[in-house]
Each structure stands twice: as structure tokens, then as C-alpha cells.
Amino acid sequence: MITRRTALMGAAFVAASPAVVTRALASDETMDTSGAAAVDLSSLPRRKVELVPPPFVHEHEQVASTGPSIVEFEMEIIEREMEVDDDGGYLQGMTFNGSIPGPLMVVHEGDYVELTLKNPASNLMPHNIDFHAATGALGGGALTLVNPGEMTVLRFKATRPGTFVYHCAPGGPMIPWHVVSGMAGTIMILPRDGLKTDTGAPIKYDRVWYIGEAEFYIPRDENGDFKRYADVGESYPETEELMNGLIPTHVVFNGRKGALTGDNALTAKVGERVLIVHSQANRDTRPHLIGGHGDYVWESGKFNNPPERDLETWFIRGGSAGAALYSFLQPGLYAYVNHNLIEAVNLGATAHVLVEGDWDNDLMEQVTAPVEYSS
């Protein structure tokens, strides 16, 4: 019996290419590892972590107090329509745990990440997960392809400290479509003894902000209004055509224009040291904190490398995540932007930071307030 889901999946995949239909629906991109030697991890403790929505991060130790453990996570794939602006823009989103970006996972080097990935029967599409932090099997993508109504469990060893992207990669043209529809997130693997400055001194943070930058491609109708679709399958053909033009309609932080502004602005206090984790799974970006700096910046996100210091703007390569540490010195409103200012101001890649504290005139002083002037 051909169900509506089967028909829609088939339509989307046929629109991509016959080869993709065969690979994705027949799971040809999976691999058989049943002949590998068994690994005995029974002596390791297990710890289950409840993930939280961005821009927040689940509780974690900055310096590991015990030896390696198996850290258990669970994520459900949720396909749903999402409002991305106040101008009628709606995305047929594909998400990890319902958020764009997917949740930030934090473990320590030497830990084992064990993820239970669930694809509910109510979804239309097959999905998987590719961890840039993992080794082999397309980052786990070849071992995690799940059709609607299926689940899988993947475990990998966290061998390299740093911030790394994860994303859905079900094969062929489905890969970019799933990524720009929201299916990307970040994992942070901390050194067991914590972060270090460029001179090797220990350094800690007071809080973490997790910024997931994404670009969307939402087609418009003949009147210039954004189009809406019944489901992800219906949205594919016109979305793919727009994607191939490489001109996004939105460039946003955390899934929506204004998601981190106004009442949703990030907050801090003067003297607090904040670690900003910034990921972009598809395009290059240039984060900049207006009125602040990057005290220590792991531009490539890899903690085995010493951080750069005192950066005004840093570069995050597409398909990677970086980290920047800053101690706020002045109160007031800050803007954290993609310093392609067209994308920041016009397309949405802006967040606000509201900092409490006392103003320091030694750092900046308004010597003369604006007064009338005539030449």
C-alpha cells in the first residue's frame, strides 16, 4: 500500500535524482560493522544527560573530576513548520529535538558519547547524524540512517578536544537541504583539565552562550510573499531551486530573525567571563561583538591549539564551530553580529547582550554631550 508519506518521500527524492532515491530509501549508505572485535566498556560508569534548548547548555564540569565515562544523550528528530520572521516567513523545518540549532552536547576528551537517535513515525523523511568529532563511517552517518518509525544508538569516543558541528547527511542533494532546513548542531569536547590560555594557564568561564547561525531559502510567490507548504516533502522542489542560487532569504541566529534580541536578549554582568560557542554548518561567517572583543578565541574551535588574543572579528569556516571567551567590562547593550552587515541588519544575523553593572569612565567617557552646532 502506498501511503501519503511514501508518496511525498518519493516525490522529494525523485526531484533530487533517481540515484538518491535508491541510496536513501534502501539504506545503501549504511555499513556492516558486525565483524569488528568487541570492546569491553563494562567497567566505565554511565551518565545520562538531559539536553536543553539553545542558547543554553546543560550542566557540566569544566574540569573533569573523574576518569572517562559513557555519556548518554537522547535526541528526537522533529519535522515541523517554524516561523522565522514577522514578515510571513515560515520554514518547513527538520530539526534535532525541535530546535535550530540542535542542542549543544558537552563531554570531556576520552569520554564516550552514546546517542539514542529517534525518528518518529509521524515524520516523512529518513535522517541520520554525522558528527565531525567522530572517526569513521561518515562521522557516524553510515551507521545511523533511520526511516520514520525507527531509532538507533551510536557510540563514539571523544578523541579530540574542541567544538565540532554535527548535522544530518542522508545522501546526495538531501544533505544540503536537510542542513539548511535546520538539521545541524554542535558538540563541545573539553580537555579533561579544562581550557587554557595561550600561555597554558588555566582559564574558566562563568556561563556559556550557544549561537547556531543558519541560512534559510524560503521561496516567494508571484507577489513577492513568502510561500508556505503543507510539509517538508512539498517544499523540496522550489526550495532546492532557490538553494542552488546560493542567495539566502534569511541568515539568522538560533532559528529565527530576532531570536536573541529584545525580551530574548542574552544577559550578563560586568566582570563575568562568557564563552560564546558559534557554529555554522554550511557557510562561512564572521562573528563580532560590537563594543567588546574576543579575549581568547579558538577560531577553528580546537582546544589543542592555543587561542588567539584580542580579536575584533573572528572567522568561522562553514561546517565548523568556534569558541570565544570575553570578560565584560562595561554595562549596557551590546550587539553580537555576523559582520557581513547586510546579513546582520537586513537578513537577521544579530543577537543582543544586556550587561548589568557600573560604567567605567576610564574605559570610555562622553566628554561633551551632543549640543547644537553651527558652522
How would you describe the overall organization of this protein?
The protein has 375 residues and is mainly beta. It folds into two domains: 46-193, Immunoglobulin-like; 209-356, Immunoglobulin-like, CATH 2.60.40.420. Helix content is 13%, strand content 32%. It has five helices and 19 strands. The chain has helices at 4-16, 18-26, 174-180, 232-243, 341-346; strands at 46-48, 70-83, 90-96, 104-108, 112-119, 130-131, 150-157, 162-167, 184-190, 207-216, 250-253, 266-269, 273-280, 287-290, 294-298, 308-311, 320-327, 332-338, 350-356. Helix 1 (4-16) crosses helix 2 and helix 1 (4-16) runs parallel beside helix 4 (232-243). The termini are far apart. The model is unreliable at 1-12 and 14-28 (pLDDT under 50).
Radius of gyration: 22 Å
CATH homologous superfamily title of the largest domain: Cupredoxins -  blue copper proteins
Number of strands: 19
Note the overall shape: flat
Structural class: mainly beta
At the first level of CATH, the class of the largest domain is: Mainly Beta
Span from first to last CA?
83 Å
Name the CATH architecture of the largest domain. Sandwich
Averaged pLDDT, please?
A: 92
Widest beta sheet: strand line-up: 11-10-13-17-15-16
Per DSSP, the total helix count is 5
Describe the main β-sheet briefly.
Answer: 6 strands, mixed
What portion of residues belong to β-strands?
25-35%
Under CATH, the topology of the largest domain can be stated as: Immunoglobulin-like
The tally of structural domains comes to 2
Sequence stretches where pLDDT stays below 50 over 5 or more residues:
1-12, 14-28
Range of helix content: 10-25%
Order of helices and strands: HHEEEEEEEEHEEHEEEEEEEEHE
